[in-house]
Specification:
Blueprint (H helix, E strand, L loop, with lengths): L14 E3 L5 E3 L2 E2 H8 L3 E5 H19 L4 E5 L6 H10 L2 E4 L2 H9 L7 E3 L6 H10 L3 E4 L2 H13 L4 E8 L21 E2 L4 H11 L3 E7 L9 H22 L5 E3 L17 H19 L5 E4 L3 H4 L3 E12 L5 E5 L8 H5 L5 E3 L7 E7 L8 E9 L7 E5 L20 E4 L4 E5 L4 H4 L5
Parallel strand pairs: 4-20, 5-6, 5-13, 6-7, 7-8, 8-9, 9-10, 9-11, 11-12, 12-13, 15-17
Antiparallel strand pairs: 1-2, 2-3, 4-14, 14-15, 14-19, 16-19, 17-18, 20-21
The chain binds pyridoxal-5'-phosphate.
Pyridoxal-5'-phosphate binds next to helix 10.
Length: 440
């Protein structure tokens, strides 16, 4: 691969290549990081995470006023240091499990600013969240509202609740991550009348303080029109509820889902312009409907952390199957990145050291005993790629560490965070003893 002006143009501005051919991330040499921490290795660019938080916060405050909120959907990447960064940046968070609540609590995050999601909170989850002082529940259905009522009632507490509403919008994205359609395991649909029904239920329960509505129509959305449609449908619902039940929502949470650039052919979305176009449209629509706009929340996960992440691997076996293809195996795989196996997600994979030899098409695969353990097919890598070479998979900050597993009893990689001129460990590498530590 020759270094040309063209190959210097990377999908994100924190990636670059030095004159000597080495790839850098946030200005740091990847060979040094690999030597210091080993591979596979998750790297995060702290400045990029903070830049994204500020882009969202700046835009929502400019568009919707100072009470508007940005909640980081922490399922995208959840570990203590990340919650500290969210706290420092003035972000709220969304959490979906006791593990996330516990981690945020350990990071000193004020859980009053946490919203507890999930389509199936167990009684233990609800009790734990109340005891830890989680500020808001996002209730998925009527059954859950009754459970919150029962548990909060027994503790003589009231819970602030948003209701997860399904606006009936198909964001034309991957089926597995499309959740705004009526047929979904998430939320209660406007179309079926269930949304109005659970609103009635919520208003009737003494230990439930209804705060408003929530929706999240899907993920990896590039078309701002989806948000305009969704927010209009949701505001219409707010108005309908006001007319039918006399209840005016205080908060309207429009979810997350903004797309990020994994490969060159995808665009880079400008966060501020998407938010500002939603705010223009929503303000105009609120005027048309003659209602006060509720406090608006956005709940991005992927677009906060995805391109702040990069995974480093070391090449092992390179296998040519004449007449078929070439497999380049790395020391990680579906255990640190299950997204190709789950959704066929595209990625950009680059050699850390540029080579003069011609590129050829290969499949980059993991080390697990599973033929679906593929990181990416159709990757162009130098034909002299060999054992010991380093590869970088870009845009791995979202749904990688958080989806990692110990399949084949493979220990999970560490998380190292880069600042402009230093690096520090945020999560240490798992050992084989860690992996076996629960066995009695
Ligand atoms: C996953 C999820 C998000 C974040 O989605 P991204 O695509 O990562 O921005 C926000 N809200 C809810 C309810 C979610 O389930």
């Amino acid at each position: 691969m020759l270094i040309t002006e063209n190959t210097r143009d990377f999908i994100c501005d924190n990636i670059d290549r030095l004159e000597d051919g080495e790839l850098t991330f946030r200005g740091q040499r990847l060979t040094s990081l690999a030597k210091k921490y080993g591979t596979p290795l998750y790297l995060y660019d702290e400045e990029k995470i903070r830049e994204k938080c500020r882009a969202y916060l700046g835009a929502v405050k400019a568009g919707f006023g100072s009470r508007a909120k940005v909640l980081y959907a922490s399922k995208a990447a959840s570990f203590k240091r990340l919650y500290e960064i969210m706290r420092e940046e003035g972000m709220g968070i969304d959490v979906v499990s006791r593990g996330e609540i516990y981690t945020a609590h350990r990071a000193g995050f004020d859980l009053q600013n946490a919203y507890f999601h999930s389509n199936n909170k167990t009684d233990e989850d609800i009790e734990y969240a109340i005891d830890k002082g989680v500020g808001y529940f996002v209730a998925d259905n009527a059954e859950e509202l009754y459970a919150i009522e029962r548990i909060a009632g027994a503790k003589d507490k009231a819970c602030r609740v948003l209701l997860r509403i399904t606006p009936g919008i198909d964001p034309h994205t991957y089926a597995a991550v499309a959740t705004g359609k009526v047929d979904s395991k998430f939320g209660s649909a406007i179309e079926t009348g269930q949304a109005m029904e659970i609103t009635k239920v919520a208003l009737s329960l003494p230990h439930v303080t209804l705060r408003g509505f929530h929706c999240h129509v899907g993920s990896q959305i590039f078309d701002a029109e989806i948000y305009l449609m969704t927010s209009r449908v949701m505001l219409d619902f707010v108005k309908d509820v006001y007319e039918s039940l006399g209840y005016l929502a205080d908060e309207l949470d429009l979810g997350g889902g903004l797309g990020v650039r994994y490969i060159e052919s995808q665009p880079t979305l400008d966060i501020a312009s998407v938010i500002l176009s939603v705010s223009d449209a929503l303000k105009a629509h609120a005027d048309e409907l003659g209602i006060t706009l509720p406090v608006i929340c956005f709940e991005p996960g992927r677009s906060i952390v995805a391109d702040a992440g990069l995974t480093l691997y070391t090449v092992g076996t390179v296998k040519d199957i004449p007449g078929y293809k070439t497999y380049v195996s790395v020391d990680g795989g579906m255990t640190d990145n299950p997204r190709y196996a789950l959704y066929g997600s595209p990625y950009t994979i680059l050699p850390v050291i540029a080579s003069e030899s011609e590129d050829r098409e290969v499949s980059v695969v993991g080390r697990c005993c599973e033929s679906g353990d593929i990181l990416q097919e159709g990757v162009m890598l130098p034909s002299d790629t060999k054992r010991g070479d380093l590869l970088a998979c870009l845009t791995t900050g979202a749904y990688h560490y958080s989806m990692a597993s110990n399949y084949n009893r493979i220990p999970r990689p560490p998380v190292v965070i880069l600042t402009k001129d230093s690096d520090y460990l945020a999560v240490r590498r798992e050992s084989v003893e860690d992996v076996a530590s629960l066995d009695l």
